[in-house]
Every structure is written in structure tokens, then in C-alpha cells.
């Protein structure tokens, strides 16, 4: 569909002001509380290294965490497309984002009750798994709102601004909790550390952070209008029948949209693996201290935010495909160098260069799909975006394990990540780029 036709048929708010863009992006800023603090750097580490460190039996707490997140991914894959489809039809994108965001915050706050005892490991795993489901479903509807706060000519920079806000929010919150609660014994605030109280208190702070910064979007950004041809409310089975019918129709009308969903699933799995295994490899391969990993995370967020901001403008000038392809090539080249260098200094240099390309790849992947999406179907397509990403989410972690085992080396595990990124790049290469706005 050309730009003029898209603009004439789009039901969304046509020209959002800067206030709406800022309010929308503050959700990204607040969501760093879940991504950076709960899932990546703080609470998941507490759950596996402290709560489950004396877990009886042969299965480690790390394995149970993987099973929990994997089960959550399966449920997301089953739920996301239908829920996105329903939110589009009913004109309730913002409402759906609010419901799932609220549930995510509830699970984050619930982590306060996970004491430093292996008997509480199951509560922590349940809350993390549920939080992953709720957060991903919130992201489906939130990403669809992108088309309401941007125009075809500005969608790249708006998406990049949102990603940058997410990175910057992670920087601020990570530094705050590190200085206030972690450094030394209980941080500068002198918080008691017995029974994991300091880390459990961080979960409450993260929940409050997400709540405060999510609110502006729901106040400032209008709800999208319901579809004029809104169908009758369908059950789950009927919804999937309709979904598969829409997929066949989408493939006939725009096969390259389906091709992009497949290609992005591959390279996004590689991006997820960078976040999942980056800190582990930093410690085990390059000798980064456990405390320094958090500082590296702050620096990496700064670099990624700058990359996303710059790439957003490039996206609007040359299109998202050039940004994604260039970013993947940059990550592959840097990753190959990391395979052969050693020591903390080399990791800091080339690790930060690698993260420079991560933000642009994430941001422009989102705008790629938003530009391809037929008007009024954005939530459904972003549901498929989440589903396809989860469908192959086992690939990179499995290859990391395979190469680590084959070569008896943690360093060799990086080959698995690079291989997935390379396959994603090859799959994306023939996909037609979306039409550019004048």
C-alpha cells in the first residue's frame, strides 16, 4: 500500500504532537525496570545465585529458570497474535497495554516475598514466568500504538527515541539501585541485607518505577478507534481460525511481510542471546569482575541509546532495511573479533562497539513491521511479531550449548550466537523493503 493510501485509510490519530510522543516513550523508560533490573541484572541473579544456591536434587536453579522462561515463551506464542487482533478490532490497544502493564507490575511487587531460601524458588520462578508473559503481551499492544504517535515520515525517529528512552531509563535505575542498595553492604542507604531484603526491596522500587512512568501514556495518548468492520467477538479456537485465514490473505497480498516476520524471528533470537549470555561470557571468558558487569551494563545502555537515536534518523532517510542489515553486519564483524581477543580491556572496547549496533537493529526492526502493517492491523501483526520471535527462541541458546560442549570452551559458545545472526541476515537480504514516505 502506498503512503497516500495508507494515510487516507488509517484510523489512528493522524498527527501526534511532541507531548504524545514523549508520553508514549516514557512507557519504554519505565519498562527498563522489568528488563534491566528484574530479568537481566538483579533479581534473576539473586534467584539463581542466592535463593536456589542450595537447591536439593540434580537440576540447578539456572535450569529451572530456563524452563520457567521457556514455558512462558510458549504461552506468549499461543496468546499474542489473537490478543493483538482483538485489541485492534475493538479499538482497545491502550486499554490492553494498561491491563498487561498492571499485571506485570503486580508480579514485580510480588517478588518482594521471595526470601533467600530455596523453598521460595518456586514462587520466584512462577512470578518471573508470569511477568514475562504479561510484559510481552503489554509490548504487543504498546508497539501497535507507535502508529498513533507518528506519521509515515517520522516513524523511524519516534521508534528510535522510544528505544533510547528505554536504554536511558535502564541506566538511571541501574545506577540508582546499585548505589542505593547494592554497593558495599546494603548500599549508601544502609539497607539490611539479611534474607535478601535489599534485593527484595529493589523489586518494589522497580515496580513503583514502572508504574509512575507508564501512567503518562494512558493519560495523554488517545485510544484508537474501533474498526468499522468489527467482527463479532470470537472464542479462542474461532480466533485462531480467523488468524490463519488472515495469514493466508496477508501472504497473498504481501508475502514479503511474512518473509520479514520469519527473518526477524531469527536475528532477534540472536539479539536476545546477546543479552542473555553477555554478562556470563564477560565473567567466564574475559575476566570481568561480577560487580563491574553492572557498570558495563550502564555503559552498554548509553551506547545503545545513542545508536538508536542516530539510527532513527537514518531510518527515516534511507529506510529500516538498510539500518537492520548494516547493524547485523556490524555485530557479526565485531563478534568475530571478540572470538579471538582476551582480557577485560578488549571486552570493554569491542563489547561496547557491539552494543552500538544492538539499539538500531531493535528499533528499525520495529519500524520495518510498522511500515509494512496494513492500517488497522498493527496489533495483530505485532502479535505475530512476538509469536514468531518466540517460535525460534530456543535456537541461539541451544547452539551456544552445542558449541560450548563440542569445543569444551565457553568462548566457543559465541559461535552459536553469531551463526543465528548470520542466518537471520541471509534470510532478510531478499526481503523487499517497505515503501518510504515522501
Question: Can you describe this structure?
Answer:
Mean pLDDT is 81; it is low at 1-15. The protein starts with a helix and ends in a 10-residue tail after the last helix. α2 (18-41) runs antiparallel to α6 (121-145), α5 (93-110) runs antiparallel to α6 and α6 crosses α14 (378-391). It is mostly helical. The chain folds into 2 domains: 18-152 and 170-220 and 234-244, Up-down Bundle (Growth Hormone, Chain: A), CATH 1.20.1250; 255-373 and 394-428, MFS general substrate transporter like domains (Growth Hormone, Chain: A, Up-down Bundle), CATH 1.20.1250.20. It is globular and about 55 Å long. The protein is built from 16 helices and no strands. Its main location: membrane. Keywords: Membrane, Transmembrane, Transmembrane helix, Transport. It is found in: Cell membrane.
Question: What characteristics describe this protein?
Answer:
2 domains; Growth Hormone, Chain: A; transmembrane helix; mainly alpha; 438 residues; transmembrane; 0% strand; 16 helices; MFS transporter
SSE-based structural type: mainly alpha
Q: Helix and strand succession?
A: HHHHHHHHHHHHHHHH
Count of separate DSSP helical elements: 16
Q: Mean pLDDT, nearest integer?
A: 81
Give the helix level as a range of percent: over 70%
